């Protein structure tokens, strides 16, 4: 009877660990294709996973930071999705390549024209952006994910220094220092960014999640496995000790 109680306690502990860790496995994130250097242009991918078993993601909205506006934002054509780029007037105009820019992109919205992101899959949404600011180390975006069952998930919570990751963290793009050879980022010029926008359309099918695509997820999974094994070991040790005592 005691042995069964110990085993049950171990199983409950392991399940609790998995339940607590699961939400951190997948969230909307942004990563550059190559380098995102200050003052330059870059192609960035917003990675959107489907976290539901009974609904598909049919709309993704990314809001751009207003404290560091980007004058040039060009989406790549994506099969199965329509895209809308929203611009707004700037309170303080920017100067780019000797020209004054009075408006900047404040939002990009993708809407599914097909099945969207189905359960068990994720989708990348590429954008060519620039010029990246030179007076900050990161850009914080706010993303809103909508499912076809009308559920809305707001990935808008900032990461506070010294605290655990929030439940719905906002995507953060880390910027690198400009290289000493005078080139900025992977695209370098506005022309390169424009060329990127005319690239062949991306595949319409969402990409299945894999360990090679998310090293952070792999690390978390391994950590959870280690904790579960530890719990099982403790339960086994206690059971063995009780058997020796009873003998």
| Structure classification | alpha+beta
Helix and strand element order: HEEEEEEEEEEEHEH
Helix % is: 10-25%
Task: Return residue spans where pLDDT drops below 50 for at least 5 consecutive residues.
Answer: 11-24, 182-200, 208-215
How are the elements arranged and paired?
Elements: H1 2-21, E1 29-32, E2 42-49, E3 57-63, E4 72-75, E5 81-96, E6 99-112, E7 121-130, E8 138-140, E9 142-147, E10 152-155, E11 172-174, H2 190-197, E12 207-208, H3 215-246
Antiparallel strand pairs: 1-2, 2-7, 3-6, 3-9, 4-7, 5-6, 7-12, 8-11, 9-10
Helix pairs in contact: 1-3
Summarize the structure.
Helices cover 24% and strands 33% of the residues. It contains three helices and twelve strands, in the order H-E-E-E-E-E-E-E-E-E-E-E-H-E-H.
Plain-language structure description:
There is one protein chain. With 247 residues, the chain is α+β, with helices and mostly antiparallel strands. It is 24% helix and 33% strand. The protein contains three helices and twelve strands; from the N terminus they run αβββββββββββαβα. The strands form three sheets. Strands 1, 2, 4, 7 and 12 form a five-stranded antiparallel sheet that branches. A five-stranded antiparallel sheet has the order 5-6-3-9-10, with no helix packed on it. Helix 1 packs antiparallel against helix 3. The radius of gyration is 23 Å and the shape is globular. Residues 11-24, 182-200 and 208-215 have low confidence and may be disordered.
